[in-house]
Amino acid sequence: MSLTLRPLRPGDEEAAVPWAADPEFCLAADWTPHLAPRVVRAHWRRIIAGSGPDFLRLGVEENGQLLGYVDLAHRQAHTAELGVAIGERAQWGRGLAARACRLLLSQAFGPLDLDTVTAQVHAPNLRSHRLMLGLGFAEVGRAEPELYRGEWVEVVCYLLGRADFLQTATP
Fold this sequence. Notes:
globular, alpha+beta, seven-stranded mixed beta sheet, Aminopeptidase
């Protein structure tokens, strides 16, 4: 099965509606739970229309189905922050996030010419910590605590440089 990244396009907002209806996904992805479908669609239509040069969101697609997305946010000259979400819980645990992140990091350190990519993970989110470490990120500190799953928690900061990614990406 081939996993690809692609630009978001009109109609993709429909895939986000069932994701937003899943309270567990909303908690995991830090989305506001219980939003009306029209609110989810309107939000996604704005993202699809374009969010400016400092934000890139690409759809994660497998066999023609949109399964989630990857982000490069807060893009500056040579750095950006990684984000990822796989929408349907039935797809979790298949390694899709890792594969999608590797594809995005290849673009980040290739055509986008970034030197570093950062990530922030809520301390209790063990899956995301394993993902970051598996991608070659190194823990570099802590950010201000944030509300996550109804509790204030530490935020762990990660950093990945081009050379480290290229070293781990080579078979």
